[in-house]
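Subgroup meeting minutes
Present: P.N., E.W., G.H.
Scribe: E.W.

1. P.N. recapped why we're keeping a running log of single-chain structure predictions: easier to compare across weeks, and new members can see raw inputs and outputs side by side.
2. G.H. added today's entry (965 aa).
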Amino acid sequence: MVLEGIAAPGARVLIRDEEWLVRRVDPSSDGGDLLVCDGVSDLVRGRSAHFLTKLEERIELLHPAQTHLVQDDSSHFNASMLYIEGVLRRNLPNDDRIRLGHRAVMNLVPYQLDPALQALAQPRQRILIADATGLGKTLEAGILATELIQRGRGSRILVITLKSMLTQFQKEFWSRFSIPLVRLDSAGLGSVRNRIPANHNPFNHYDRAIISIDTLKNNLEYRNYLENAWWDIIIIDECHNVAARANEGGLSRRARLARLLSTRSDTLILLSATPHDGSARSFASLMSLLDPTAISDPDDYTPEDFRDKGLVIRRFKKDIRDQVEGDFRDRITEVIRAQATPAEEAAFHALLEIPFTQGGKRQSGRQHELQRVGMQKGLFSSPAAALQSTRNRIVTLQGRDAPTEDEHDEVAALQTFQQSLAAVTEDQFAKYQRFLRLLTDPDYAWSPKDTNDRLVVFSERVETINWLRERLQADLKLKPDQVDVLHGGLSDTEQQALVERFGRSEDPIRVLLCSDVASEGLNLHYFCHRLVHFDLPWSLMVFQQRNGRIDRYGQQQQPRITYLLTETEVEKIRGDLRILEVLQQKDERANRDLGDPSAFLNLHDPDLEAQDIARRMAEGQAAEQVAQDLEQEATQATEGEGDWLLKFFDGAAAEARAKPSATERIAATPSLFADDFAFAKTALEELGRVRPIAQWSHDEVSRTLTLTAPLDLQQRLRQIPREARDADDRYVLSGQPQRVAEAIEKARQAKRDEESWPRVHYLWAQHPISEWLRDRVLTHFGRHTAPVLRSPDLAQDERAIVMMGLVPNRKGQSLLVDWQVAVMRGKQPPVLEPFDAFRERAGLNAGTLPNPGKAFALEPLQADLQTAVQQMQAHMQQRQQAFSAEMSERLQETLSNLKHLQERQIEQLELRLEKQGGLENLRQGKRDRRVGQIRRVFDEYETWVRDSLQTEPHPYIQVLAAVVG
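Output recorded in log:
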């Protein structure tokens, strides 16, 4: 292989006698590089190809001093303006500023930029976004992904989420950020298999995909595919589901899968509102996914071990309240009480009389009370739920070979309890009757006829929501399609379809009855601001998760949350119900003051919280004592005596508040065009001067383009979600975010599934059609050529050569981009002038420079190229050396920290082995294996750091245009 110079992204190369534009450079396993290229010359235009430098006989880098200058005969030098703009758009600096993400289709709030800014400041972008429920973590991930895509670091993306959220996440990324994801749900997997060759890795066939964690966990074939695929960005949504758990002996399949995924991408973005279960080991497992060198001992570490690495960001509503006054409305909460009927009181008494058995014997005490509380939990939900639990218990006891006398007594008591439950008919079910009166109360002002005022009802038990579905249809005279249920027994496609229906105004659904499977992540706030807790959860975390379905960013109405409580004369039952009411009150305080409701119990796991509440009830704790204990726990946590992770997060939020506003770190990207509409319209006009490249029309007032995709564009558009593709390949794009937002809302209200995706696309730099136009204008002038423009604002003898300099790292990623103009007057040597200053001085703006179309001699300019390029090379060499020295200092500091961390991990290993004791030869075997693992992790990370921070010694120079007076 012969390679003249360095093939960096943006370089033009000759391979197999065809011209290619280098899009990406990755190290290959054979010691060379893998070049990902787009075709430029006629034969390969519109195609992408991968070349291994070790296998190619000759790769010729086109030298900038040999660039062929050509006269631009287009009106207002449009072809030149488009070409320069294309290069500008393709080569953004890899700095820590926001360049494009803030312009997505969203109502930008400054706090949403903080995760991207924090990640971009790190050597590699690996971050846990742990903002509280409803703050918009998906949007924050989209901003960061956009910034990485624009820097050439986001070509391949994999998103892992819950099965119920596949469509929601996919739609948000596409409609707001123009990031296409292929949905690999149960239906999509079969479709994908039909479209790709047998035995092909679907993760290599599709550059951007979204899949459920459970699909990967349960499908061995797809887990194997993961080991042979690499991404630029991996996003794991609701990542607490993949953390190691304190109550699990080893790593779960989800946790093992996440560990594998963490090694398959440079960038890893974790999302969770509940990022740990209170144990140091659980949180350490998430940190090790982001950076395996961060924590030496997962059971013994402090926030200082990883604070400076920028791995975590966490804010609560109280932290950003001053920024979101118009986007978050204070919720209205109300407790509706219902006095138990005589039939219910009889059921409560019957429950307390059941002599629960364990192992065939009745044993009074804590275990007996826990069984009673377990049955009581169903009764607090509904008689239907308690009845199902009672039947199951009776069947279990009667199914034994030789039931004991105590078990016979329990069965008899259970049958009495069963009879009392059967007597609690709907008219004797006080909580339900109070619920009906609430729904028909004029003050509550809910009407099933109002399509924009829907109702979400939560219950812990599936039996309760199924019973409610039947009764509400009858008592409110609702049609079957006006009430539906969402629970974990539905398939992924059924859950997604139901959430989609609830978000459409024209869908007949009015009431959505949900189990707690719907409490994580789902957007239920479209056309719904009322939420009813038919039964109260036994976990503060579930309170937060449930309420976050409607009390979240983007809610247009004031959220109204209602809690239904039963009041009883049975003292024991009354006390336990009061404990649940205490939880509701603490949730309100957390929402108002603390932010994190888990501070009250300090358990950080919904199941553990529910178990703790059941224990307190079984022990007979009074509600007042429970309230006092919870308040004391919260005080200790906030003062640092309890949960140090909570203290760390609060400290991080305080540091974020002390920083300059995120909006001050938005960098304006230079452009020669007024907006994306002007660029696209001019590109279509200029590229179609000789022969139209597509059928299209435009509207100047609405800044809208309508385009029918030609064949080469159709090929590109296969990457976008199939629901967003037009059957006739006709696309409407608007450069006005507000119009796109209106189209998103309209699509959400569509009657049919195929219309539930917005028909108006966002016309901005990240849309595949904009990228197609950008790539077309980059090849407009042919092989190794640059246009010449005239500017009346320059002196008569003034000539200028516009150039771009680029310094890549060892991975071929652009670290430094510098635009300079070599200005020459008469016979004086060239002087470099920053492009922005020259552009303004020379009036280089699209549509402003008249082109007289007169021919002039290009030979003098061609002769100037050599000295201009030499001047630029000298300038870039100096910049590269200074930049390399800065990166070297950063590298040495990083390597020094890595060495210290490695030594500490080995030291911690020695302490653990010493504490464990045992035979020396066994300890030595453990020592050797673990030391080998530690060194392998650090060696891999060190190699990555060196490749990322060390620059190539030879900057890449590209001549873009010449300008004469």
